[in-house]
């Protein structure tokens, strides 16, 4: 090896191999996307980010990572020649060559450290950027057209969507890069070190037959046989790794529910039942972990044995040629190194099998998420026609997901200042009618005209209080304002005691009583002054006197607003101009007062 020319040689090597690798990588990815189901899943998830029509930056960044992967292979090749020269110098007791090789090492080691640090930075920065983009894209799709809600109605509802957005995106990005660059590294190393091994290996007599370049053939046969066995031993890890994620997610979900419904469970003294549920789900996690441990023991045991044999194998084969002075000690060391590199490269499939198994599971979960979101997007929606100060229902029919009629052919007109009370026994479809009017319920026909967006307000029985201050909750979903109106409406809703705490950050959904939360929702209506307000048992937790006061306040403060209420108390009738009674099986009756 001529070290003085090496810089030029290495640059030439890079100039040839870099474009070749880019083309090869693109061809492999295109082939996988065309001929394998998981390749198509990768394309579906990755293409929107790498599409040049959007931006060239991700592809350029990836190309830079490919370049650094090639540099790493080239450095390994140089190190293998360095070992040869260094050991040969020592064997020859050549002091000049020895010190020269130490100088070469100094240059190589410096370059190696710089390359490793830069490569690390490039990879991490690339992964963070990709993760940010993909997470934002999935969050956007999750929030678009109320997919977070409507996915409950799809045929293939998904478990733990939160885990998919948060954890699986990270795993997808990391594994995509490590697996693809690992493969590239393996292929280029295979070429480079097979060449080295070819020049260093001699003939070997196998059962009396002379095999030329025996070392090259031996390493290939050895690893191919080992890989076939390893894939058979490792295959069950695919399913086990999928189950691992599922069981953990379901255990975590049970823990979250325990926290969310803590108070109800505490009232019930339901600890024993909860412990049983938790223990059951945790037992699944542990049983699966043991199954992974035992399967991995077999898998890793096999892999370790294969790698250990590979350490001594080249020495045994080359020893006779060294002893007969056909080759130098440096040649033997370089052979062992090249053998190790070829073995490692060929073993890529075998050693990455478990990571690939988890990767497939991640792909299934992420594409399952996209499927559910797309399916939710295709569910029919009854988008309301915008009107001003008027509610108009024509031929409105609402069904259960099973097809059972809840309301058939409803015609109704309400003008500004009108108020409608919807009544009927529990489970008859009152809330579902409001969902249909809001455009959330998919099983609906007919037409709805009503004020939309900020001009319509829906108040459910259990108000939603977002994270943050009380002021944020009061103005939600508008940004909080400090215009003095919040204090006024709190006073009107008999919540003056909260005025001093408007900017306090707390878990208000837990602190305030349900009645207080419902009054806070009424205060929100007073602030927003909508053209139409829907109240779904929004005063159920108040006593009759307070409910009376709140409805009186609504009517007086918002005289032109249409009020549509769902409620059971007969006293509510006084505040409504019409009553819609649901009678079951789709029948209904509209009455004055
Ligand atoms: N997501 C859903 N999937 C399947 N069935 C549903 C779903 N949501 C509601 N239902 C069914 O639709 C019917 C009407 O429910 P809805 O909540 O509208 O009743 P309601 O009249 O408001 O009852 P309540 O007075 O008890 O609040 C019920 O039988 C309910 O089980």
UniProtKB/TrEMBL annotation:
Starting at the broadest rank, the lineage of the source organism is: Bacteria, Pseudomonadati, Pseudomonadota, Betaproteobacteria, Rhodocyclales
What SMART domains has UniProt attached to this entry? AAA
Q: Does the keyword Nucleotide-binding apply?
A: yes
Q: Which Pfam families match?
A: ABC_membrane_2, ABC_tran
**Which key words tag this protein in UniProt?**
ATP-binding, Cell membrane, Membrane, Nucleotide-binding, Transmembrane, Transmembrane helix, Transport
Instruction: Kindly indicate where the leader peptide sits in this chain.
Output: none
Q: Does the keyword Secreted apply?
A: no
Under the heading InterPro entries, the entry gives: AAA+_ATPase (IPR003593), ABC1_TM_dom (IPR011527), ABC1_TM_sf (IPR036640), ABC_transporter-like_ATP-bd (IPR003439), ABC_transporter-like_CS (IPR017871), ABC_transporter_sub-D (IPR050835), P-loop_NTPase (IPR027417)
Q: Which residues form the ABC transporter domain?
A: 391-593
Location(s) in or outside the cell:
Cell membrane
Quote the Gene3D superfamilies the UniProt record gives.
ABC transporter type 1, transmembrane domain, P-loop containing nucleotide triphosphate hydrolases
Name of the molecule in the record? Putative ATP-binding cassette transporter
Q: What GO molecular function annotations does the UniProt record carry, in alphabetical order?
A: ABC-type transporter activity; ATP binding; ATP hydrolysis activity
Source domain of life is Bacteria
Q: Which residues form the ABC transmembrane type-1 domain?
A: 62-358
May I have one GO cellular component term?
Answer: plasma membrane
Q: How does this protein sit in the membrane?
A: Multi-pass membrane protein
List residues traversing the bilayer: 12-35, 56-77, 97-122, 186-208, 214-233
């Amino acid at each position: 090896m001529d070290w003085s020319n090496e810089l030029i040689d290495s640059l030439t090597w890079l100039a040839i191999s870099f474009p070749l690798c880019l083309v090869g990588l693109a061809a492999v990815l295109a082939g996988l996307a065309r001929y394998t189901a998981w390749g198509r899943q990768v394309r579906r998830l990755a293409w929107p980010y790498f599409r040049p029509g959007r931006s060239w930056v991700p592809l350029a960044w990836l190309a830079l990572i490919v370049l650094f992967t090639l540099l790493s292979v080239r450095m390994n090749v140089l190190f293998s020649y360095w070992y040869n020269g260094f050991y040969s110098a020592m064997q020859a007791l050549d002091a000049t060559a020895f010190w020269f090789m130490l100088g070469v090492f100094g240059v190589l080691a410096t370059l190696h450290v710089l390359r490793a640090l830069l490569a690390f930075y490039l990879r991490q920065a690339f992964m963070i950027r990709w993760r940010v983009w993909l997470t934002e894209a999935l969050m956007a799709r999750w929030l678009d057209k109320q997919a977070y809600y409507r996915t409950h109605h799809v045929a293939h509802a998904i478990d733990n969507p939160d885990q998919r957005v948060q954890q699986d995106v990270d795993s997808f990005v990391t594994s995509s890069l490590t697996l693809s660059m690992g493969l590239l590294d393996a292929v280029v190393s295979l070429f480079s070190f097979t060449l080295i091994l070819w020049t260093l290996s001699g003939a070997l007599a196998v059962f009396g037959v002379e095999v030329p370049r025996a070392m090259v053939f031996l390493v290939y046969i050895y690893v191919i046989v080992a890989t076939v066995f390893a894939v058979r031993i490792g295959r069950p890890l695919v399913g086990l790794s999928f189950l691992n994620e599922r069981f953990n997610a379901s255990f975590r979900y049970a823990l979250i529910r325990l926290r969310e419904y803590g108070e109800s469970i505490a009232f019930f003294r339901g600890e024993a039942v909860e412990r049983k549920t938790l223990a059951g789900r945790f037992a699944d996690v542990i049983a699966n972990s043991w199954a992974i441990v035992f399967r991995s023991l077999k898998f890793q045991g096999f892999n370790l044995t294969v790698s250990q044999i590979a350490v001594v194998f080249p020495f045994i084969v080359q020893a006779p040629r060294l002893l007969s002075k056909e080759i130098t000690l440096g040649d033997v060391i370089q052979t062992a190194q090249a053998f190790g590199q070829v073995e490692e490269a060929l073993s890529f499939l075998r050693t990455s099998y478990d990571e690939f198994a988890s990767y497939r599971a991640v792909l299934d979960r992420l594409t399952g998420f996209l499927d559910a979101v797309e399916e939710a997007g295709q569910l029919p929606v009854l988008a309301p026609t915008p009107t001003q100060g008027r509610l108009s229902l024509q031929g409105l029919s609402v069904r259960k997901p099973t097809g059972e009629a809840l309301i058939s052919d409803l015609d109704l007109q309400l003008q500004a200042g009108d108020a409608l009370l919807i009544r009927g026994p529990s489970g008859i479809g009152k809330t579902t009618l409001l969902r249909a009017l809001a455009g959330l319920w998919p099983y609906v026909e007919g037409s709805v005209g009503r004020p939309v967006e900020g001009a319509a307000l829906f108040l459910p029985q259990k108000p939603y209080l977002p994270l943050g201050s009380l002021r944020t909750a009061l103005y939600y979903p508008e940004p909080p304002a400090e215009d003095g109106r919040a204090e006024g409406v709190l006073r009107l809703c008999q919540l003056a005691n909260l005025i001093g705490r408007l900017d306090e950050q707390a878990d208000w959904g837990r602190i305030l009583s349900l009645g207080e939360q419902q009054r806070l929702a009424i205060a929100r209506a007073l602030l927003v002054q909508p053209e139409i307000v829907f109240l779904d048992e929004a005063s159920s937790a108040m006593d009759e006197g307070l409910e009376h006061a709140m409805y009186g306040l609504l009517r007086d403060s918002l005289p032109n607003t249409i009020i549509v209420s769902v409620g059971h108390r007969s006293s509510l009738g006084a505040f409504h101009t019409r009553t819609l009674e649901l009678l079951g099986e789709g029948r209904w009756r509209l009455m004055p007062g």
